[in-house]
Amino acid sequence: MRAVTAWPAPDIGGGTREEAALVFDKGRKHRLLVVPPLFDEANKFRRQLVEIMHRLDLSGIDSFLPDLPGTNDSLVAQRDVTLETLRTAAVAASEHFRATHCFCVRSGAIFAPADLPGWRYAPIAGRNAVRALLRARTIASQETGNKETMAELSKLADTQGIVAAGWEIGSRFYHGLTESDVPTASSAIDIDHETIGGSPLWLRAEPDEDPEQADALAAIIAIGLTGE
Q1: 133 burial class (0-12, 13-18, 19+ CB within 10 angstroms)?
Q2: Superkingdom of this entry's organism (predicted)?
């Protein structure tokens, strides 16, 4: 059954606060935590992730897509979020939903729970995710006649934080992202996009979905979990 529910996410100031989660939960054996990418790619993948979860539900697999602090509909201020904030919240979500496996997309790999087996789709390092934001701001600045360089923006972000492509990134978050590589994960299987085929959603101009790609990703996960 598809539903939106609340879950007790760790609050930055201590304690917990309610965040939303999209769930397909029938109390089944296999329970998959879904960790989306950061920033604009999160918007581009949201519908696709729902489509993948729906297919997994038909294959007898429960799945959970939680809002983490400062993401999606969360009311936590983006500027207060750090990489550790997301890592702590992802672990808390995995425990709350009793996840047995994890599926993370792109930059989601850098804050997904390290001890959960599962799959990483086209994982990228944090520096790649933030570089795309800075590049978007340089393009916007050129259009307004206020030219900014990547070097200038990087220095600003590292010392004061920055607003880029509509995202407010604090200096601690920026620094954490630039220092983060894709973690070594012996328990996770990486899925290259070439295996899926088609045009990657993160390269498309607008949020989109691709039924064939959703079929392929859901099939890899379902076969891995159930053997069918």
Answers
A1: buried
A2: Bacteria
List, for residues 29-64, the tens digit of each pLDDT value. Answer: 999 999 999 999 999 999 999 999 999 999 999 999
**Rounded Cα gap, residues 19 and 9, in angstroms:** 6
pTM of the full structure: 0.93
Which residue reads 């983006």 in tokens? 78
Which spans in the chain are helix H? 40-58, 83-96, 126-143, 150-160, 171-178, 193-196, 211-226
Domains, the chain, ranges and CATH? 2-124+182-226 (3.40.50.1820), 126-181 (no CATH)
In what side-by-side order are the strands of the sheet with 188-191? Answer: 2-10, 16-24, 62-66, 31-35, 101-105, 118-121, 188-191
